[in-house]
Structures are given as structure tokens and as C-alpha cells.
Design brief:
The protein is mainly alpha-helical and 98 residues long. The chain has one domain. It contains 3 helices and no strands. α1 runs antiparallel to α2 and α2 runs antiparallel to α3.
Length: 98
């Protein structure tokens, strides 16, 4: 397996984790009441947007030509770190509300 394949697998696994987290948070939102439910839905919308952006970046990277791979991988790494941090921040807010 090449470094490229390993890197793409790592990103795909993270996307799968985020999708599972979103599913869990959606279940929590269904159980919440009033203002709490509204807050959770707003946060979920933000998480879905980040996940969708990450998914697009993953697909772009997956389809990148060999000569563009290194440059795209560097940009992807920066973006994914920002998404990861934002996702973790959002997840911690949900846990503190439980």
C-alpha cells in the first residue's frame, strides 16, 4: 500500500467517525426539548457543513493527479486539522449539555 492509499484510508476513517458522531448527536437532538433542541440542530447543521466540505476535499484528493498530490495533501492536512478541532469543540459542547 502506498503512502497515498494509507493517507486516504486515514481520511476516510475520520469521515466515517464524523458520520457516526453526527448520527449520535441527531439521536440526542430528537430527545432534547425546546431551546436545547434548537441549539443542537444549529450545531448539527454546522457539523454537517464541515463534514460535507471534508468529504468534498477527500474526493478531490482521491482524484488528484500524481503531480498535484503533494500540494493538495498539504492543503488537505491543514483543512482537516481545522475541521477536526472544530468538530471536537462541538462534540465537547454536546457532552457538557448532557
Amino acid at each position: 500500500m502506498t503512502n497515498r492509499d494509507e493517507y486516504l484510508e486515514k481520511l476516510k476513517a475520520k469521515l466515517d467517525d464524523w458520520n457516526a458522531d453526527i448520527d449520535k448527536l441527531e439521536a440526542s437532538a430528537r430527545e432534547a426539548q425546546g431551546e436545547m433542541q434548537e441549539q443542537i440542530h444549529k450545531q448539527l447543521e454546522s457539523l454537517r457543513e464541515m463534514r460535507d466540505d471534508a468529504q468534498k476535499q477527500y474526493l478531490d484528493l482521491q482524484n488528484a493527479a500524481a503531480d498535484a498530490w503533494d500540494v493538495m495533501a498539504q492543503g488537505t492536512e491543514k483543512a482537516w486539522k481545522a475541521w477536526f478541532n472544530a468538530f471536537e469543540d462541538a462534540r465537547s459542547k454536546f457532552k457538557s449539555k448532557d
